[in-house]
Design a protein that fits this description.
The chain has 6 helices and 4 strands. By secondary structure, the chain is of the alpha/beta class. The model has no long low-confidence stretch (mean pLDDT 86).
């Protein structure tokens, strides 16, 4: 049975935060705190434990909603959480993106710098797109079987 807490988080998470343990993401974290005052953000339990990130009321420390019999690093755990909670993976700092390049299917870079309003809007659109795509992927999978 699916827990009500899980359903609440699927509905209310705006993204899963991920940053490399070597990157200093304080500026980005502060921006997220200011811009997502009313919606929750998630972070993998393993990443929270190894980083010195201070908690705030809209940050949820997440564990996978299913059992895994392997020791996962924070990169894999964060990606699985994003998939499990139908939420975008918010990758902070470019060096962190480089670390995840083996998992990248398609990359799109722009030289344009988005202002705060546009960046927040794009995160919201990514969240909606993931939800829409998820349902289509499930339906397509059912048709193949």
């Amino acid at each position: 049975m699916i827990s009500s807490e899980y359903l609440y988080l699927v509905k209310n998470l705006r993204g899963i935060i991920y940053f490399s343990d070597k990157s200093k993401a304080e500026k980005e974290i502060e921006w997220l705190k200011r811009k997502f005052r009313y919606r929750k953000l998630g972070i993998a339990k393993s990443l929270k434990e190894k980083s010195k990130l201070k908690l705030w009321d809209k940050l949820e420390i997440l564990s996978l909603p299913f059992e895994v019999n392997l020791k996962l690093n924070s990169e894999i755990e964060s990606m699985l959480l994003a998939s499990s909670f139908l939420s975008p993976l918010l990758i902070l700092k470019e060096e962190t993106l480089t670390k995840l390049s083996n998992f990248l299917i398609l990359g799109l870079k722009t030289k344009e710098v988005l202002d705060d309003r546009e960046l927040k809007r794009n995160i919201r659109l990514a969240n909606y797109s993931i939800t829409d795509f998820y349902l289509k992927a499930i339906k397509a999978d059912r048709k193949e079987k």
